[in-house]
Every structure is written in C-alpha cells, then in structure tokens.
C-alpha cells in the first residue's frame, strides 16, 4: 500500500461516513460475542479503537502487514498489535472467539477461531467498480455475494449470511468512478467531506441498515459465518 494512502485512512476512518457505516454494521454483528477478537488486516486501527471504546469487555488483537499501519493502529487503539501476514497467523489453534477479516486467508482464520466462533468479512463488491483507493491499497479482488458465500463454504464455515450494503448510494459510486474519475485522474476515494454532505451520505447508509430486507447490489459485501461446533 502507498504510504500516503495510510495517512488518508488514518485521518478519515473515525469521521468519514463510509467507515462509520461499516463499523455500525460490525458492532451490530458482534453484539452477542464475548472473549477474544482478532482484526486480521486491521489497517490503521479504526475498528479496534472503536471497539476499545464501545466493547471494553472484548480482548482485542490486530494483525497488519505494514509496520507503519501497525504502529498507527497500536497508538490509536491500545490493542495488542502483531506485524505479520494474515496468510500465516502467529496464533495457536482455536485462540479466538471472533474475527474480522477482508477474506484474505479464510483457512487460517478457521484454524485460529474456536468451535462456534464468529467470522465477519467485509469485501468491496464488483470488479467493474475498481477505484483509485483499490489500486493504492493493492486490492486485487472485488467480489460478488455469491463468490464470497462460496469461498466461506469451501473453507468449512457454516451458518453463512451474505448481503450487499451501501446499496442506496451505488448510483453515485458508479457516477464517481466511471465519469468523474475520467476528469480528475487517480484521486483517492478516501476523503473527508463537508459535514453537511457527510451527514447526508451517512444518513442514506443508516436508512438502508434499518431495512428488513437485503438489496440486490451494493458497493460492499458483508458476510457473517461461524466455525462448526
């Protein structure tokens, strides 16, 4: 990942509407979890910092490949941080009750999760929505809900629930990435918006979050799955 992109993420992830919307969904999914939680690929630690505030009952650990991001995450969250790869996690089998991951190493996560443990995976959706931020963080994969479900099943997870989110704003995302990007070049999507605009965008995601049904497409895919008991 480009160093400058880490700086953008570090500044924006506790304020920008997208991060706040994602974190709200993850907090809801973790409402019944107790014990040890692993954030695999924790970036600059925004989720860990939020969990430290909202869920002091959880024992938090983060893993991040970049030493720079790992240092930022440790300073921001106070969590136990390990600099390393999610493909070879430096933890014993069945060490965690829950894990949050971008789907990079599902087999490793299944190994370190306890029987009945919870896995949350958030992924960017649809290859044709590739963005400047994807290129800067070296994200090589955007997926459909069907693909993510099949990965989780193949890795041995059960009780899999997958749904798109950031659906109401999908037309704006398409316009920004397919039309505006032609005029403004390789500008990152991670920015801080004026407060009034940020409030409108976050309000759209909050409204969507309250819907009792899933929409057929969105900018991101969130999956919840468990290790068999």
Describe the fold and architecture:
The structure is a single chain. With 229 residues, the protein is an alpha/beta fold. The protein has 9 helices and 7 strands. The chain has helices spanning 3-12, 17-29, 46-54, 67-77, 106-112, 132-136, 145-154, 170-184, 195-209; strands spanning 36-40, 59-64, 80-83, 96-101, 113-124, 158-165, 220-226. A 7-stranded mixed β-sheet has the order 3-2-1-4-5-7-6, sandwiched between helices. α2 (17-29) runs parallel beside α9 (195-209). The protein is globular and about 45 Å long.
Mean pLDDT: 89
Number of helical stretches of at least 4 residues? 9
Strand order of the largest sheet: 3-2-1-4-5-7-6
State the shape: globular
| Residue fraction in strands | 15-25%
Helix content: 40-55%
Order of helices and strands: HHEHEHEEHEHHEHHE
Question: Which ranges are low-confidence, i.e. pLDDT below 50, for 5 or more consecutive residues?
Answer: none
